[in-house]
């Protein structure tokens, strides 16, 4: 999780982290955005909305929703909450979860639907489909690489270069 990685980086317990934006809390860390991806709807494949190519956000008003935990996944919680608030939807939250894998697994078990980053499509949980929202500018989730600014380890610089190149390749081949 982002907060744990930030603490470990600053304490010198790890050299590099893949995390969500830390903004003003970066301290002595350098960051580089690797991926910016749209948020999508994850839903059971037999759900009535699964046949649509794009989903109207208002369609979620009556849906049981799996939401990211406000305490442990604040970044995703804020993105999803803002989407729902903008559409004036009071969500029917049936479950909260911290990890993306757990959220998609709960969708797979039929508990509800969830708003997740597009990369979740690669998790391949049985019975889950992903649909884009019918929005002109869907909210995006960002994944950053972070490291201590004053770390002069040459392996770190090589890793950063490789990570940036691989993220660019992923963006060209896997994301919409």
UniProtKB/TrEMBL annotation:
Gene Ontology CC entries for this record: protein-DNA complex
Entry keyword set: DNA-binding, Transcription, Transcription regulation
InterPro entries the UniProt entry points to: LysR_subst-bd
LysR substrate-binding domain ranges (all copies): 3-164
Domain of life assignment: Bacteria
GO MF: DNA binding; DNA-binding transcription factor activity
Pfam families on file: LysR_substrate
Keyword Signal: no
PANTHER family: HCA OPERON TRANSCRIPTIONAL ACTIVATOR HCAR, TRANSCRIPTIONAL DUAL REGULATOR HCAR-RELATED
Assigned protein family: Belongs to the LysR transcriptional regulatory family.
Stated name of the protein: Transcriptional regulator, LysR family
Source species of the chain: Caballeronia sordidicola
């Amino acid at each position: 999780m982002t907060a744990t990685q930030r603490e470990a980086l600053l304490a010198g317990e790890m050299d590099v982290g893949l995390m969500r934006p830390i903004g003003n809390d970066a301290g002595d860390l350098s960051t580089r955005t690797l991926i910016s991806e749209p948020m999508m709807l994850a839903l059971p494949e037999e759900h009535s909305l699964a046949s649509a190519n794009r989903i109207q956000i208002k369609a979620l008003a009556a849906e049981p929703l799996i939401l990211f935990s406000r305490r442990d996944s604040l970044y995703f919680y804020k993105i999803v909450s803002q989407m729902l608030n903008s559409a004036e939807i009071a969500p029917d939250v049936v479950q909260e979860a911290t990890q993306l894998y757990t959220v998609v697994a709960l969708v797979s078990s039929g508990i509800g639907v969830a708003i997740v980053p597009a990369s979740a499509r690669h998790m391949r949980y049985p019975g889950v489909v992903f649909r884009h929202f019918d929005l002109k500018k869907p909210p995006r989730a960002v994944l950053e690489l972070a490291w201590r600014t004053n770390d002069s380890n040459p392996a770190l610089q090589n890793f950063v270069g490789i990570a940036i190149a691989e993220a660019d390749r992923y963006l060209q081949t896997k994301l919409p």
